[in-house]
Amino acid sequence: MPAEVLEQAAAEMLDWHGSGMSVMEMSHRGQEFGRILEAAEADLRELLAVPGHFRILFMQGGGLGENAIVPLNLSRGQVVDFVVTGSWSQKSLKEARRYCQPNLAASNEADGHTTLPDPAGWQLTRGASYVHLCSNETINGIEVHELPDLRALGSDAPLVIDFSSHVASRPVDWSRVGLAFGGAQKNLGPAGLTLVVVREDLIGHALAICPSAFDYKTVADNRSMYNTPPTYAIYMAGLTFQWLKRQTEGALRGIAAMEARNVAKAALLYDFIDRSQFYVNKVAASCRSRMNVPFFLRDESRNEAFLAGAKAAGLLQLKGHKSVGGMRASIYNAMPLEGVQALVEYMRQFEQTQA
Ligand SMILES: Cc1ncc(COP(=O)(O)O)c(C=O)c1O
Asked: For 251-354, CATH number?
């Protein structure tokens, strides 16, 4: 979370804008929360340049919830193509088996989830309900830098992306997307809110077994208030959207500014790792994530000492996911360039002390 956002939330905690109430105490149907929700939606639409024929839904259930909710709404019980590029898309495919017929269109499992299968080689199904792609694999550190044009690949299916871990870090090419979903807790706000951006024509086709609260039509028709929405998380996300709108890098503003900053942060870290004989990143250069940088010490017996020293230097949460091992630096939007500089400096010093 950006510190400015946390400070603003703290200042407004007991009394939101003279209302005499904390946001946590408001009725979600009251005027005050209505204004918060409306502003959050409008700001997000502007930031991400979401076209008018897409609906923005504020839901609950997280990314894993959407692994069920998307097939319940979009699959019509038919074939869905999955591109597996790491742990999260693997989980999406597994969950979808309950509701549709998943086809494994491509996988990078053979190379240990370190490359992005070339879209030209994807085995897409004619008439598939949609194609699922995780546009940033948080654990494996793989990012799709250009969304595929499915039409050019001979598929009429809409593309569904799980953009949980890089939403708002770069622009989205909506002309190539049918639906995007993501948990808020990386770049948008605290956990508890799930964002869904869905093309209007994909709404209204849920399977009969789909719970009403998860039917995109019910959610859209009720402006994300069919059931009580995660009000405080929406408020915090709204503050984050305003913070994002204020960001500048030279002449760039908002998401474009964030992207420039994220490119610089990632380049600093990857360049350092690539030049080192001590550390290594195994992901193909063309699909390295700007948000999640997994790396290894070539001598893994030094892992514990590396982590202990990092903690002492105030550099936290660097241990890699258990399925991958090694280290992982998650450098989301709120991490400033100075944070990455501090990490690189620590890595350099640690290497020197080990010589
Ligand atoms: C890409 C991706 N998808 C899905 C999830 C699961 O999200 P949640 O914990 O909100 O269900 C995560 C969580 O880290 C993720 O990074």
From this structure: 3.90.1150.10
